[in-house]
Amino acid sequence: MQNLHSSDPLEATAGASVENNTAPSQPYSEAIAGQGAPRRWPGVLVGVGAGVLLTLVGSQILGGREATPPDAPEPPPAVATQTVTVATAAPATVADTLAINGSVQATDLLTIAPQASGLQIRQILVREGNAVSAGQAIATLDDATLQADLRQAQAQLSVAQAQVTQRQAGLAQSQATLAEAQANLARNQTLADRGAISQQELGSLRTQTITAQESISLSRAEVQSAEAGVRSQQAAIDRLQTQLTQTTVRAPVAGVVAERLATVGDVSAPGSPIVTLIENNQLELAAEVPQTQLDQVAIGAPVTVTSNADRRIQLQGTVQSIDPVVDAATRVATVNITLPPSDLLRPGIFLRGDITTSSRQGLTIPATALQPQPDGTAQLFVLGEGNVVEARTVELGNRIAASGDAVAQVEVLQGLQAGEQVATSGVGFLQDGDVVTVVD
């Protein structure tokens, strides 16, 4: 109990501890008290270290329980970064083609020239590009001279007709004279048979009869000559009337005016055309094909025709003919491709075409799904589970040009399977692994 009142704190603490312990611990407290202060520090350090160790172990246990709570929430789902449209890779007929280039020309280019010559052109009624129908007036010529000639010919016809009337009257008179001479001859023949008149008088009557017959022949010839004069004048009138109709130059067939070659005031001539006309507005593409590729071109093969200068030109033509002559210098032949009527076509414009040489089944997708790469390859984005897109590099085949409402397609040779869906819009902003929203 005295140890409890010791001035040494450690000693007081130790004494209190001994007094509170049970009897078996008494020798230990006495040993501590008997050794003095230097002997008390190891026990204190041991107690403090044990407490720190227990504290650390408890912290680790409690900390581990906090780090892995039994009801931890799942990570939030990925957020879509882009809205896209998709298309399904599907089998389709793919054509193998031969690329060609050429110029547009008229299948039949007609030169319209006046038939009446020596007349001034009074009016030209059409311009380049105008569509005309068969028989439509193209130009008119000055017909004043022809009108005057026609009036003169009509007057001469009247004179000729009067001459015919006069000659017919002379013929009638000659016929009457012959009838009278024949009657006198018959009457005097009876008298001569009776001896009432001499044979000399009878011979004179016979001569008169013969003369009257010859007069009739002459009158008939004169009538025929006068009638021929009438016909000649009528022919002249018909010719002049024909020339008058020719003063209106008309289109022989329907077509489109390609070029106007004359102006008002020019003098007409059969060899001087006024306009050129594309018959039925039928144009063709004259394309040059190397001799080594001619065996790939068949008559009647379809041709897709486009223009680098005008994207509106999307036409379907047909191989019409192949010129039989191959140019000896360039070793190319001309292939003529018929073109459908179009207001966009003009003779002389340059077009390109793809002649179908064969066809087969292939896997196609819209051309808008492709993303060209700097190394020359093509990449697309395939839609996977959870609307996650996967970037793929694909090998391409032929291209199918847009036609009507159908968009341009491209054949995929490797890197894609039928039925897979590919992004067709916004592909330039996509990256591998992006989550997208698919819209119609």
Automatic annotation (TrEMBL):
NCBIfam families: RND_mfp. Residues 285-357 form the CusB-like beta-barrel domain. Keywords: Transport. Its main location: other. Residues 18-28 have a biased composition (Polar residues). Residues 1-34 are annotated as: Disordered. Residues 111-269 form the Multidrug resistance protein MdtA-like barrel-sandwich hybrid domain. Residues 164-247 form the Multidrug resistance protein MdtA-like alpha-helical hairpin domain. One of its GO terms (molecular function) is efflux transmembrane transporter activity. It comes from Shackletoniella antarctica. Coiled coil: none annotated. It comes from the Bacteria. Residues 363-427 form the Multidrug resistance protein MdtA-like C-terminal permuted SH3 domain. Belongs to the membrane fusion protein (MFP) (TC 8.A.1) family. This is Efflux RND transporter periplasmic adaptor subunit. The lineage of its organism: Bacteria, Bacillati, Cyanobacteriota, Cyanophyceae, Oculatellales. It is found in: Cell envelope. One of its GO terms (cellular component) is efflux pump complex.
